[in-house]
Design goal:
The chain is of the alpha+beta class and 217 residues long. The chain has helices at residues 16-27, 80-87, 136-152; strands at residues 33-37, 48-50, 53-55, 61-67, 117-118, 124-129, 158-167, 176-187, 190-198, 204-214. The longest helix is centred in the middle third of the chain and has 17 residues, at 136-152.
Length: 217
Amino acid sequence: MQIPARFNGPPGSGNGGWSAGAFAVDTGSDGVLAVTLRSPPPLDTPITRSDGTFHAPDGTLVASVEPAADPGDPVPPVRYDEAVAAARNYPGFLSHPFPTCYVCGPDRPDGLRLFPGVLPDGRTAAPWTVPADVRTETMWAALDCPGGWSALHSGRTFVLGRIAARVDALPSPGASCVVVGVADGLSGRKAFTRSTVYGPDGAPLATARATWIEVPR
């Protein structure tokens, strides 16, 4: 398998959510899976799977996948108009550690254009127009950055370390969805978050729980 270059997060490496989704899908396993990113996923590079681990051509361990507990209850929903209003004040418009990120980068007109703004209670919310090529990996990507920004808006920079996701359904291409995120806590260099994608009818479509690792800005 390969992570196509268009699905980058930080420059030169795969978006954590999309990459994790691709690793999970590649295992062919059912149920809730947790993906731990062990090193930055390389782009346009053959990655080989051995049981539940993925390696770069030089042998570097990129990720591991294992069964996981359910990520829990969805993050409480937000109305679409509230998400639109929140997104106008997306912190990434002013300062973004990875402005070309496929998911949340303001410099990516061809990306998912998920711009999670901060709500008064600290949650994040973003409206999302679902792309034509939506698939399971897309849902993992959509769950990624809105969760991360619930910690990123503190001014610290985090990258995804581990994510466990449950994808119940895919939205239709062009659908107007809402993605919400919340930080459950911080411990040293780690942030713990949850995120949920809601469909146009208000039903939760996917939920994730993630651990983020602080890196120098």
